[in-house]
């Protein structure tokens, strides 16, 4: 596979997941939104805090726990999605810790890489590489936030675990022929790569009605605290998930 074709595939598949996952390769990533560009080489504390404060202004009724959770989820969703698209659709991996992300007024979308570097290896090796890269990247995000408000590692571990399992659910939706046993085994590989507690795997189980995997998260995004919003279907607080 030619180098350029890997990234073209990555960008094409990413847009099929969501049009917000729009990428490019550029040697000089720039802030195209006016709200910041998050990159591991930059001091991003102010840009991330700015996002947090705009979320606070938009939903003052929701409270600090929601603003922080939402900020974290926005920072982490693109790198996690790209890890899954890269490995399962493109069978390779770009240097995820070098991703640049565009910060908008109240969300994070659009990404870039500095060059066409990528790696091909076995699926298990790629998952291990993705885990190392994303641990370093997410640690950078957490330290950036920790400079202006407390964010506990345990809190982020639950959100990362739910992010991984949510991506596996989406993978089964895109490729329904993948078996539950295969996906549960993949979940174990991802948790090992991220050094996450195996007990959190219990939130992913087979739904008796559909026969497919179902996720009941261990974390709550707290969106129900925003005026006019409801509990998510996979929320641990949802009545259907307490039966």
TrEMBL record:
InterPro entries to which the protein is assigned, alphabetical: FCR-like (IPR023998), FhuF_C (IPR024726)
Record domain Ferric siderophore reductase C-terminal: where: 217-237
GO molecular function: 2 iron, 2 sulfur cluster binding
Pfam families listed in its UniProt record: FhuF_C (PF11575)
Domain of life of the source: Bacteria
Full protein name: Siderophore ferric iron reductase
């Amino acid at each position: 596979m030619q180098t350029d074709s890997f990234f073209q595939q990555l960008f094409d598949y990413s847009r099929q997941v969501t049009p917000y996952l729009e990428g490019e390769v550029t040697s000089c990533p720039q802030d195209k939104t006016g709200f910041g560009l998050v990159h591991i080489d930059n001091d991003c504390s102010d840009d991330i805090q700015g996002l947090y404060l705009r979320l606070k202004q938009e939903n003052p009724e929701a409270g600090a726990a929601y603003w922080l959770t939402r900020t974290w989820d926005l920072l982490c969703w693109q790198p996690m999605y790209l890890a899954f698209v890269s490995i399962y659709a493109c069978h390779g991996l770009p240097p995820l810790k070098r991703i640049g992300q565009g910060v908008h007024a109240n969300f994070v979308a659009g990404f870039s890489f500095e060059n066409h570097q990528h790696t091909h290896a076995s699926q298990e090796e790629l998952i291990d590489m993705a885990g190392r890269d994303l641990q370093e990247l997410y640690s950078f995000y957490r330290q950036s936030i920790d400079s202006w408000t407390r964010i506990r590692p345990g809190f982020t571990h639950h959100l990362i675990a739910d992010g991984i399992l949510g991506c596996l659910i989406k993978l089964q939706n895109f490729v329904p022929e993948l078996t539950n046993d295969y996906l549960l085994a993949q979940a174990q590989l991802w948790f090992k790569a991220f050094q996450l507690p195996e007990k959190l795997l219990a939130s992913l189980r087979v739904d008796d009605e559909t026969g497919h995997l179902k996720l009941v998260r261990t974390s709550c995004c707290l969106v129900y605290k925003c005026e006019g919003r409801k509990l998510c279907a996979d929320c641990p607080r949802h009545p259907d998930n307490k039966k």
